[in-house]
Amino acid sequence: MRAVILSITTDLSELYSLLHTLKYEIVKEFVQKRDVPHSASHFGPGKIDEIVEEIKGIDPDVIVINGHLKPSQHHVLEMRFQKECIDRVGVILRIFSEHAQTPEAIAQVQLARLRYEQPFLREWVNKAKSGERPGFLSGGAYATDVYYEHARTHIKRLEKKLIDISEGRGVKRSRRHEQGYLLVSLAGYTNAGKSALMNALCGSDVEVSSELFSSLSTTTRRIPGMKGNVLMIDTVGFIRDLPPDLINAFKSTLEEIFYSDLVLFVFDSSDDTEILEMKMRTAFDILLPKVGDTPIVAIGSKMDKISSEKIEESRKIIQGIIGSRQLIFVSSFTKDGLDLIRERIHEMQGRNHVIEASLPIVDESYSLISRLHPLSDVISDIKEDHIRLSVRCNIDDSEKIIGWLRASNGTILVQPPPLS
Ligand SMILES: Nc1nc2c(ncn2[C@@H]2O[C@H](COP(=O)(O)OP(=O)(O)OP(=O)(O)O)[C@@H](O)[C@H]2O)c(=O)[nH]1
Ligand SMILES: [Mg+2]
User: Fold this and answer.
1) How far is 396 from 353, CA to CA, in rounded Å?
2) Is the pTM of this model over 0.90?
3) How far is CA 247 from its chain centroid?
4) Domains detected in the chain
5) Which of 194, 205, 268, 279 to mutate to test the pocket of ligand 1 (most atoms within 8 A of CB)?
């Protein structure tokens, strides 16, 4: 496919990676710097006229817009260029479609795609008179209308199918918990190195690739050499500017994160500072609502590619985003740092006692919470007039922790049974 790019920013590196993953050839790029897209046509109409002339000689297969198109803009651009136009989400969905392999991933991608296309179709149903649209749906108003109705039915069917798969997944998960498995999930931005880390820890052979979204289905493997049974779960990567609808299509996959006992939140520590921060914030924003009470450890991958100064620089940025959660740097290639992950999992295995408490909102409570972190997995939630605390710890530490909480004017709401 020969693609022409339109962008209102000069930052094209991620779009290049996405198009490279699709094996599209970029034949020309047009950049018109603007703070916000033109409301009717993304680029200003004068610039569009110019491009229409210019691409006549190039004759690309597709025009890729480095941003998010509203249905009306999409309609205008396709009419002007007489070419298929896709935006960034459209590109991502094409990658998803190509990479989906399991029945669940295929259904999730189909659902995401149909939901994404709905508003565009509605626009075409409203506007189409004689079927001038190039590319798909070129059969005119009637065909568009039929397709739209068909899509709606299909969406319902897919939603039902995914609920069924998700229920099966839930049964499997609770069986594993009953059998005493500890579940550790990998989450993070696409290409962060999640699958490579899984392979390094589990000796598995999940596909590792520089393409984006290589893993669209979850894979579960046992981590060998650990006391007790520990399962590691690789999950789909995140990317910025994904509409919630798309994330929701992957809901059942992301549930694996929610129900795990520990989340390893992987980021590529070799990324440039600005990109590192953007990816980390994006992934964290998507991740946090998905993790519930599960403790998170941030994992800086690919440390073999960076200097110790860069590690320290990244540490500062990341710690600013993840707060007092633990941060470990690793390399799946040299295996550096992997022992720290195993150690952390070991600790988790003993932390099966929960203390619930409330603390007053004062500085002393915050310093107590920092003191609790090395000993336990702490979740704090600020309520109107108190801090609600859930502390998972080792039974040996529970009495000490309860003592500290009481000394800081805390009220113990739930505590483990006393040691006999
Ligand atoms: N130098 C170095 N490269 C790594 C390391 N881990 C992963 N990579 C490279 O980073 C790229 C992405 O790795 P993956 O493990 O596929 O990343 P992922 O997070 O699973 O990506 P998606 O499944 O696409 O979301 C590949 O080209 C790997 O070879 C590492 O420890 N060191
Ligand atoms: Mg992967």
Assistant:
1) 10
2) no
3) 8
4) 2-98 (3.40.50.11060), 100-160 (no CATH), 180-349 (3.40.50.300), 351-414 (3.30.70.2750)
5) 194
3-state secondary structure of 331: coil
- Ligand 1 pocket, Cβ-based, cut-off 6 angstroms: 190-196, 208-210, 212-215, 237, 301-302, 304-305, 331-333
Q: Determine the distance from the C-alpha atom of residue 170 to the mean position of all C-alpha atoms in its chain, rounded to a whole number.
A: 21
Residue 356 CB-density burial (10 A; 0-12 exposed, 13-18 middle, 19+ buried): middle
CB-count burial class (<10 Å; 0-12, 13-18, 19+) for 41: buried
Ligand 1 atom nearest 188 alpha carbon: 19
Q: How many Å lie between the centroid of ligand 2 and the Cα of residue 140?
A: 41
Give the Å distance between the CA of 131 and the centre of ligand 2.
Answer: 41
Eight-state DSSP code of residue 417: P
Return the structure tokens found at 70.
Answer: 């509203």
CA of 384 to the centre of ligand 1 (A): 43
Q: How far is the CA of 345 from the centre of ligand 1 (A)?
A: 22
- Determine which residue's CA is closest to atom 16 belonging to ligand 1: 208
- pLDDT averaged per 10 residues in sequence order, the chain, 420 residues: 94 92 95 92 93 92 94 91 93 89 86 87 70 50 73 90 84 75 90 95 90 84 83 88 77 80 93 91 84 86 95 92 90 95 86 88 92 83 90 86 94 74
User: Of all atoms in ligand 1, which is nearest to the CA of residue 215?
Assistant: 23
Q: List Cβ<8 Å contacts ≥24 apart for 366-369.
A: 368/404, 368/405, 368/408, 368/410, 369/324
Question: Helix and strand tally (H, E) in the chain?
Answer: 14, 14
